């Protein structure tokens, strides 16, 4: 179990869960693919398919971010990916399907099961701080993708539902499971575990939105360690039993 704030950050940096999740959390617009035609031609059919699939998602994410979902065409996406539009339609039936897969791939912003496996023996405060540090870090890495997704979900309800179910809701479900266990252990007083999860996640979601999406960091930057400790303290002071240590 870690005790100091710097140790928390060091564990996050060096932990196996991050290594395992690194490919999942990498921004779509920054994914690198083989550039050598010779190397690509030597790939097996499945590898070529997956490589092309990833290029389409990468190209679409970049164009959606620049031009919006409506403004980007499948022809432009195909050209950006270096393929024909016919090839694109072998991978996706429609532009909507591309968008939904981008959302699906962003499920990494939800707390992964590997993270929860890592913190299972930590105290409640350390668990929450570890989760919060990871959440802030991942949000910063994917801020461009989130900006694009949030812009589209405002005008397209079906995309909004897909986004919520895939990203925030999965995190809420996993954190509420943690809250339920703490309630059963008597650490936290009787309360709705999902509301507790929403309250905790909501603080950091609002902070990230203001800092990364609305660019509040350009007006006033905060030390992330201070933010995590402060928000976690506020949450625990309201959730812990009065006689709990």
In short:
By secondary structure, the protein is mainly α. It is built from 14 helices and no strands.
Give a description of the structure.
There is one protein chain. The chain has 245 residues and is mainly α. It folds into two domains: 5-25 and 106-239, Tetracycline Repressor, domain 2; 28-95, Arc Repressor Mutant, subunit A, CATH 1.10.10.60. 73% of the residues lie in helices and 0% in strands. α4 (45-71) packs across α5, α9 runs parallel beside α13 (193-213) and α10 (143-155) packs across α11 (157-166).
Sum up the overall morphology in one term.
elongated
Uncertain ranges? 15-36
Structure class = mainly alpha
- DSSP strand content: under 5%
CATH class designation of the largest domain? Mainly Alpha
CATH topology value of the largest domain: Tetracycline Repressor, domain 2
Biggest sheet record = none
Rg over CA atoms, rounded to whole Å, is 20 Å
Count of discrete alpha- or pi-helical segments spanning 4 or more residues: 14
Work out the count of structural domains.
2
Q: Which CATH architecture of the largest domain would you pick?
A: Orthogonal Bundle
Q: Mean of residue pLDDT?
A: 78
Distance between the termini: 17 Å
Helix content: over 70%
Query: SSE order, as H and E?
Result: HHHHHHHHHHHHHH
Strand tally, please?
A: 0
Keywords:
elongated; single chain; 14 helices; Tetracycline Repressor, domain 2; Arc Repressor Mutant, subunit A; 245 residues; mainly alpha
């Amino acid at each position: 179990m870690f005790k100091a704030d710097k140790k928390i950050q060091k564990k996050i940096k060096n932990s196996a869960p991050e290594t395992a999740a690194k490919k999942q959390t990498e921004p779509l617009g920054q994914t690198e693919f083989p550039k050598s035609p010779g190397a690509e031609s030597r790939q097996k059919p499945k590898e070529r398919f997956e490589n092309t699939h990833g290029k389409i998602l990468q190209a679409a994410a970049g164009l959606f971010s620049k031009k919006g979902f409506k403004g980007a065409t499948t022809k432009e996406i195909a050209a950006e990916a270096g393929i024909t539009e016919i090839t694109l339609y072998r991978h996706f039936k429609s532009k909507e399907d591309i968008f939904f897969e981008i959302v699906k791939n962003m499920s990494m912003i939800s707390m992964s099961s590997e993270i929860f496996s890592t913190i299972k023996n930590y105290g409640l405060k350390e668990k929450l701080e570890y989760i919060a540090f990871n959440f802030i870090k991942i949000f910063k890495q994917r801020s461009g993708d989130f900006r694009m997704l949030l812009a589209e979900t405002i005008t397209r309800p079906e995309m909004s539902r897909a986004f919520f179910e895939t990203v925030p809701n999965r995190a809420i479900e996993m954190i509420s499971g943690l809250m339920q266990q703490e309630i059963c252990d008597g650490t936290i007083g009787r309360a709705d575990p999902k509301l507790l999860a929403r309250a905790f996640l909501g603080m950091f979601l609002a902070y990230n939105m203001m800092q990364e999406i609305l660019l509040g960091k350009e007006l006033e930057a905060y030390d992330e360690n201070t933010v995590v400790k402060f928000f976690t303290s506020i949450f625990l002071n309201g959730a812990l039993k009065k006689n709990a240590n």
